[in-house]
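WARN no homologs supplied; continuing
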Amino acid sequence: MTDHRFESVSEVREGLRKVDYLADEGIAGIVYLADRLQKPILVEGPAGTGKTQLAKSVAELIGARLIRLQCYEGLDEAKALYEWNYKKQLLRIQASGGEGDSWSEVEDDLFSDEFLLERPLLEAIRSDEPVVLLIDEVDRVEVATEALLLEILSDYQGSIPELGTITAKQIPLVFLTSNNTRELSEALKRRCLFLHVDYPDMEREKEIVLTKVPDITDNLADQVARIVRSLRQLELKKSPSVSETLDWANTLMLLGVDQIDAETASGTANILLKYQSDIAKAVREFAADKAGFKQFAPGPK
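OK structure emitted
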């Protein structure tokens, strides 16, 4: 369990680049430290900034299986850690038919591995193979459910009354993502390294577009990044995410656009923005500043 996955921060950064995740020094540094300190990473930031993709990319980088627990209101132990296969247990009871087996023997059999249904948390710590555990949108669970996570993340073990304490066979790399819809408990935060992933700066977003959108030109990627940056400076209900930037860039490629003008931006604004009030505001901005689109064109201004 003491083997390290990475030798340096630069190795993390270059490795993530090879799997098309463009990490800055801060992101690479936290992944490196999480491996060395064997601590989970709590990744906060706006929706669509690449929090979930970071966990997926790290799993791809190290050749580990990704196990994902999607959080939601009402998530409980039966969905997160384990439950018993009641139908199979009932068949076992019926099969005994009162012949031969004593009830104590049947009971011992019922609460064995054969009848245990592993859920993501238990599956992650019992795995013999390398695992990246993604606990996605942890801010959606109730505060009471965090107690379950605390046991897993503190000691990498889980308690099953009928079987005892299950200890991890290997320490998984753990990512918890949060859109910060509610404040997480101090106890949970203490057990994690903290990483805030915000919208990328314009140059990095352009690089992401060039990496993720096949055959896009440098000029069009530059226009996309600049226009998206200008939209994020407006007071919107929801700013465009990186994933929506990529959707827009792919849309422009499908439409054969090589130079974005106000009409094109207005006609495709619904790809970037998902509230009608935001779309209307963006379209007004585009219409009022048609001349300003020249700044997105290549060459001297």
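The mean pLDDT is 89.
OK
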